Amino acid sequence: MSTTIIPWETVLKDSYHTNYDDDPSCSVIYLSMSSLKRSGELSMHCIPFHGFLKDDVRFLKFSLAMNDNLLMGDIKSNPKARLNWMMPKSKEYYNFKGKFYIASAPIQVTRFPPPKISDDIDYWENQRIKEWREMSSKARATFTWPSRGELPKAADIVFSCQSLSGDENSVVYDIAMDNFCLLVYKVSDVEHFDYSCYPPKRTVYTVSAKDYQWTVEKANP
Fold it and tell me: How far, in Å, CA of 117 to CA of 107, rounded?
């Protein structure tokens, strides 16, 4: 587990609480993701944010379906990506640089398992299970559906599961849970732009690849 001081942690979490606490309309938060495919073509997605990893704030948590051929394919092609997070109330945004890792069910095989941050060999599987159990029944049901975004749209019957309770004895439950991956993003650079004031403020946080220490610099707005 990381003991390094993360200078942007407090700033980001303050922004998060300011924008999303006590707001029932923000039950799902989507961040914009972009990366380059091997072909050089730009890849773009909106991915659902599931919170900060408690043991290491450098990791942001998202969800991914094993059968999501579009997003899974783009991450396997290039796990390095950029994220953009617009804060709807406080007039600020964050741009992140980093790398994705995939914590999948033990029966699945993925190319980018998360790095070790604990001596517990089951650490990431426990995190995946915890995240699954905290999801709403409607969100869990989506992991019984076919691959997102594919054309033409599948027959309505394959979307008949629209609520999946915590019945762990159900075959459908097991299939959906095995399809669920905890997608984690390790942040390496952060740009914070605050335009709630004039002139606006831009701050850049960069981590050293040698000693993993962070530097903080003020940039032109």
Answer: 22
Neighbouring CB atoms inside 10 A of 189's CB total 15
Half-sphere exposure of 11 (CA within 13 A, CB side): 17
Write a three-state SS string for 76-140: HHCCEEEEEEEECCCCEEEEEEEEEEEECCCCCCCCCCCCCCCCCCCHHHHHHHHHHHHCCHHHH
Average pLDDT, the chain: 93
55-76: per-residue pLDDT in tens?
A: 999 999 999 999 999 999 999 9
Structure tokens at 220: 């032109």
Indicate the pTM of the whole model. Answer: 0.93
So what's the pLDDT on residue 1? Answer: 55
